[in-house]
Model the fold of this input.
Amino acid sequence: MEELRKILLELLSKVPGLYCVLITDRDGVPVIKVLTDKAPDLATRPSFLSTFGLAIDQGSKLGLGKAKTLICTYSQYQIIQINKLPLIISFIASDTSNTGHILGLEKYIDPLLVNLTVAVADTQ
Amino acid sequence: MEKHLDRVMDDVLSNPGVTSCVFVDHQGLCLGARGKASTECAGIIGAIADQAAKLEPQHKSPIIVFENDTRACIIQRNGTITGAIFKNI
Amino acid sequence: MGCCYSFFCKDGDSQQRGEPNERTHLLVDPVSNSANIPQYNSEDFLNNSNTLPKKTDEQSALNRILQETATNVIDVAALDSHNLQQHEYVERMRQYSSKLQQACATNKLPVRHKLCVLQDIPAPEKILSSESVSEDDLNLISTAVTKAAAAIGEIKVEHKEDMVVLFRVPD
Done:
């Protein structure tokens, strides 16, 4: 598990402005998370991250197919959430950081998801 | 909406040896792509241009070239738009 | 064809013998596994179609329509996130943590090799001292990016039809 954290911490340093990477279940309960001290605490709470699940359910009704990614840009931050149900990958970054680069980090996280899915699977 | 950009991209591709091109906005999101290049490289292209510009911030945006034995990738930023051209050498 | 036949077949000797054959039922009723489940023979089904209870059919059809509409309607107010209790949240976190430890112990992650970009070049000084980018390429990229920036500046939304319309019921 320490190795997982190390890999995620490396990702944090790859993108300037990326504050936090969280991998949670559908209700927002974190399975693993890495933060810097610039990460806004409220945005890492389950009550905020769980809205993604509801948003993609409703979003899938727009007639464009299942939602894969949700990008929300606020005045100071941007939140990028990727649908890997039963897991959700959430990135919290500054509003000026490179969104495309963060989206590109998905392929580095994919191989780690095998273990993480096992951790969530039995409880759901 | 993007007729002009389409025309510019087709223009670029008509040059000899060029296999594909990608244009990226300031947030690393793909604005347009032609040829074999995938839109997934958009983020990295934007990041490369940003990082290289930090070497000499007071000067004009640098041109970055990646080369291997057969192909080259040329990247430059102009304002908020970054462009990348892939060609055979 | 064999599958259809075994579904509609009457309860026969096969069940007692315990061995599956082409007459074995494929589906078993999970609620009541008793022998007084009506076994329909295909001919009976066609002949008795008139006597099927029509009321429940209509009801189920209506329910189905209601269900379909509910799933298709985008209901933003339906964000009733069942907020987890503090203890449940802590409990789950602990569970995940321990399961993750177990999973990591059993599945080793694929080893990531350190990237050395110029590893395959035998004589880097030869490459570095050779001619850099050609003038043509420089011009190519400069003009391309300048033209693209201008083209992108001209992107605007073409207003074709209203996005928000009144839900008008004709008089």
